[in-house]
Amino acid sequence: AALEHVAGSEARFRSLVQNSSDVITIVDEHGRIGYQSASATRVFGTEPEELVGRSLSEWVHPDDAGAPPSLLGSVTGSQGDSVLVKCRMADSVGRWRHVETAVTDLRDDPGVRGIVLNTRDVSERVALEEELRHRAWHDIVTGLPNRALFSERGNQARARSHRQSTPFAVLFLDLDDFKSINDTLGH
After folding, report:
1. CB-based contacts of 120, cutoff 8 Å, min separation 6
2. What is the DSSP letter of 178?
3. Per-residue confidence at 137, pLDDT binned at 50, 70, 90?
4. What DSSP string runs through 77-131?
5. What is the mean pLDDT of the chain?
6. Strand, coil or helix: what is 169?
7. What is the rounded distance in angstroms from the CA atom of residue 125 to the CA atom of residue 111?
8. For the residues of 20-83, what is the DSSP string, one character each?
9. Dist. CA 7–CA 22, nearest whole Å
10. Does residue 34 have a pLDDT over 90?
11. pLDDT tens across 76-86, in order?
12. Measuring CA to CA, which residue among 42, 38, 1 is closest to residue 16?
């Protein structure tokens, strides 16, 4: 009965991992992938077997190249504690996906013996945040910088001018009868 319970628990945990929305990866201390969950196919379009044995750094954006060492170094000496790291990882067609990865050092756990990465694709959230940031500083119709961005850049220029003891200027143009265009076509 005890063996059946253990086998049932193992099957349950295997099913939970395989059907998780997060990509679960186990790497060694050198960043070599030893296990990759099936969710890698849903999130990145890559079969788990294609990733096992490869280096984690092959998967991470070159500008985020410091991420794999920091992923692994961030948990050194903190057995069982998780650290959240943000970076970009490639999918199967070469697009860079923004991800958040919870890194947990379980090298001393006999059932794992590795560093566990729970990776979540946050690309849609990052795109929405960038769009909202752009809308805050640009006109929706024209895409041109708006008054808020002008004010911010003016304040930055004034501060830089003060720090460097150099002058700055603002050029203001007034176009005659432009109000009729605004009234007709909108700002």
Report:
1. 21, 22, 23, 99, 100, 101
2. H
3. very high
4. T-TT-EEEEEEEEE-TTSPEEEEEEEEEEETT-TTT-EEEEEEEE-HHHHHHHHH
5. 84
6. coil
7. 34
8. -SSEEEEE-TT-BEEEE-THHHHHHS--HHHHTTSBGGGTB-GGGTTHHHHHHHTTTT-TT-EE
9. 24
10. yes
11. 555 667 888 88
12. 38
Both tokens assigned to 60: 């991470």
3-state SS assignment for residue 138 = strand
175 vs 146, 165, 187, CA distance in Å? 18, 33, 14
Q: Read off the pLDDT band of 13 (50, 70, 90).
A: low
pLDDT reading at 98 higher than 90: yes
Edge-first strand order for the sheet with 33-36 is 33-36, 23-27, 114-121, 96-106, 82-90
Residue with the two structure tokens 């057995």: 79
Cα–Cα distance measured from residue 104 to residue 49, given in angstroms and rounded to the nearest whole number: 22
Under 8 Å CB-to-CB from 86, ≥6 apart: which residues?
A: 98, 99, 100, 101, 122
For residue 161, pLDDT over 80 is answered with yes
pTM of structure: 0.69
What does the pLDDT read at residue 71? 58
Confidence of residue 142 (pLDDT cuts 50, 70, 90): confident
Whole-number Å distance between alpha carbons of 127 and 144: 19
